[in-house]
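Case study.
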Amino acid sequence: MAQTQTATQSPAIPTFDENNAAAFQNRIADTLNSGAIAMMLSIGHRTGLFDTMANLPPSTSAGIAEAASLSERYVREWLAVMVTGGIVHYEPAARSYALPPEHAASLTRGAPLGNLAIYAQDLPLMGAVEGRILESFETGAGLGYEEYPCFHQVMSEDSGQNVVAQLFDTILPLVPALPARLVKGIEVLDAGCGTGGALIAMAAHYPNSRFTGYDLGADAIATATRAAKVAGLMNLRFEARDLSGFDEAGRYDLITSFDAVHDQKDPQALIASLHRALRSGGVYLMQDIGGSAKLENNLDFPMAAFLYAMSCAHCMPVSLGQGGEGLGTMWGWETAQRMLKQAGFGTSERHVLPHDPMNVWFVSHNA
Ligand SMILES: C[S@@+](CC[C@H](N)C(=O)[O-])C[C@H]1O[C@@H](n2cnc3c(N)ncnc32)[C@H](O)[C@@H]1O
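After joint prediction, the assembly is written out as follows.
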């Protein structure tokens, strides 16, 4: 009797479709190819090869290597990846290589369309901790930020492009009265400021306002402090500090967090403490990843698999490593909105900016 019930409830065994299987194998081969190209995009960015090539006429591998001050043999092998990967154009008769301007527009520093090669650096970053992540699959343990080589440098390039470059034209005007208040002089905190690029730009732009940046990473704060000193900014202070248990009630007129909530130890407690830290009339401007909390809603979200991979290999483990919840990169805008409300913000406006469909911006006022 029991056997009959089990048999009846089992789902039908799907038939094996050979065409689907062959198509899927091709898809996986393409994925492997794309992954290898992406690794080499990172090298093209970090060596400056894309920037060099964007400024050269079609050139031989020797010419490109010389212009970039790199080893010709390595450059030639990298170029072979770029040619077979459809990134670089090759002229066999002249043995010359060229980076088309339409491709340079997505792969070079200051590229008008945004430099996607910056994100390619996340792949070797994930690869560097694969052994530790494999252990964590068994133990469930988290990782520390310091285990990720160059994390703060990569993050600083990412936010340099997505946040700092857009601050004055797009981001701060999300709160219409804010630029004028910053000109007059207010107290500003950036929570989880990383290497401090956004605060340094704001402190230089608004000399009457005072800026504070806190971040867990002593190395990130050391970089930020050095940069502020070089810029000669006196209205700016950085401090290495764990924001768990943060408590500076009624101290700030503006609090920002740029991609710095979901991987904290306790995001809900952090947002509540930021709410308390605002003066009456203060504003919390929060940027975070704009995916949905529901997996099924993210099937068409830009670079969703990439973001879940970053979550699995970085954002979730660093939160778990702090004894946190491990919400992950794709914690979802719905979760963020709920936490903002629970923290005491009556309403929060939600914005998605045209230059950056991956992120969401919440503007929340302390009434
Ligand atoms: C994704 S990075 C963003 C950094 C920076 N806001 C930017 O846009 O470049 C997240 C930052 O949150 C910081 N962070 C994570 N947990 C923290 C904690 N408990 N206290 C303070 N900072 C923390 C990390 O050190 C890291 O710099």
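Observations recorded in class. Confidence is low (pLDDT under 50) at residues 1-5. The beta strands are 89-91, 96-98, 187-191, 210-215, 236-240, 252-258, 278-289, 348-351, 359-365. We will return to this complex in the next lecture.
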